From TrEMBL:
SUPFAM superfamilies: Glyoxalase/Bleomycin resistance protein/Dihydroxybiphenyl dioxygenase (SSF54593). GO terms for molecular function: dioxygenase activity. It comes from Haloarcula marismortui (strain ATCC 43049 / DSM 3752 / JCM 8966 / VKM B-1809). PROSITE patterns: VOC (PS51819). Keywords: Dioxygenase, Oxidoreductase. Pfam families: Glyoxalase. InterPro entries: Extradiol_RC_dioxygenase, Glyas_Bleomycin-R_OHBP_Dase, Glyas_Fos-R_dOase_dom, VOC_core. Residues 9-134, 157-280 form the VOC domain. PANTHER family: RING-CLEAVING DIOXYGENASE MHQA-RELATED, RING-CLEAVING DIOXYGENASE MHQE-RELATED. This is Dioxgenase. The keyword Zinc-finger does not apply.
């Protein structure tokens, strides 16, 4: 039996948005993430695919979106990633609450979870997101993007995702097969009394936690919901061993698919959530200089030959820029 290399954690999370400009403005200007790739959905080239991440687009930092303008509003429920949480430096939540007040962001009171302070909020499509205060070590693998948000408050990659499941047990077993370790349980705040949140930890330092929570609340995919969550399998060999382990668990992973900036394998876990396994490379700077990430519409592979057709069908968007930078032009 092939030995499985444990996943270091989350690679990226992909969500469904409505208006592309609204999505761009919120994630770049309000939250201060960098647009590291402006491309298309490779399975639906009539739709953008935006990638927002840290300054270098490091694995474990990119929140990505399909702005499907004609989709209906979604509802978070069982069989979905219900919350996506990002790390922010200790002591920065006062800054974030002030910023949310300034920008009219819908947020809730802070809560404590596994000893950490969490600030829940929603993006303009109602997507549930959280900021979690953590100590950022000097050798942290993320690089803050500081065009809109100061370094001492900037988002530093993923903290965790929360999975809502009708029956969490098979998914808990799968996470352990993928190399995550159960590290604790606690009463779930704001949910059905008696429900327990179970936390699993991966081996890396960014995006290392997956929380599993039982619920029978119905949901539907659409604006404001997560499409899929991707886990890091840094090399092709790591990915292949994980794919074999997933098959051994009775699931049906796809063959490897080239996504241009990483190579991917997809499967639905037993609760219905779409999981992806993604390699670390080639990376977002494989087709654009690091300084110019997100500056142009990138059409990978065969799509470049259809540029005129594709660009004609996409809504024009403007990348937010700080006022100081605009004044220098």
């Amino acid at each position: 039996m092939t030995e499985v290399t444990p996943t270091p954690g989350i690679h990226h999370v992909t969500c469904i948005a409505s208006d592309p400009q609204q999505n761009m403005d919120f994630w770049v200007e309000t939250l201060g993430l960098r647009l590291v790739k402006r491309s298309i959905n490779q399975d639906d080239p009539s739709t953008y695919h935006f990638f927002f991440a840290d300054a270098e687009g490091n694995p474990g930092t990119s929140m990505t979106f399909f702005p499907w303008e004609d989709h209906a509003q979604g509802k978070v429920g069982s069989g979905q990633v219900s919350r996506t949480a990002f790390r922010v430096p200790e002591g920065s939540l006062d800054y974030w609450e002030g910023r949310f007040d300034e920008y009219g962001v819908d947020y809730d009171d802070r809560v404590k979870r596994f000893g950490e302070t969490v600030l829940p909020f929603r993006d303009p499509d109602g997507l549930p997101v959280e900021l979690v205060e953590v100590e950022i070590p000097d050798d942290d693998p993320t690089e803050p993007w500081t065009e809109f948000v100061p370094e001492d408050a900037a988002i530093r990659g993923f903290h965790s995702v929360t999975l809502w499941l009708a029956d969490p047990e098979p998914t808990a077993d799968l996470l352990q097969t993928m190399g995550l370790e159960e590290v604790g349980t606690e009463q779930a705040q704001g949910d059905t009394p008696g429900d327990e949140r179970t936390r699993f930890a991966a081996t890396g330092s960014v995006g290392k936690y997956v929380d599993v929570l039982p619920t029978i609340q119905g949901g539907r995919q659409g604006h404001g919901t997560v499409h899929h969550v991707a886990f890091q399998t840094p090399t092709d060999e790591d990915q292949q061993s994980m794919r074999e382990a997933v098959r051994g668990a009775g699931l049906r992973p796809t063959s490897q698919i080239d996504r241009h900036w990483f190579r991917s394998v997809y499967f639905r876990e037993s609760g219905g959530i779409l999981f992806e396994l993604a390699t670390s490379g080639p990376g977002y700077d494989s087709d654009e200089p690091l300084d110019d990430l997100g500056g142009r519409l990138v059409l990978p592979g065969k799509f470049e030959g259809r540029r005129e057709e594709i660009e004609t069908g996409l809504t024009d968007v403007t990348i937010p820029r700080p006022a100081a930078a605009e004044a220098d032009d």
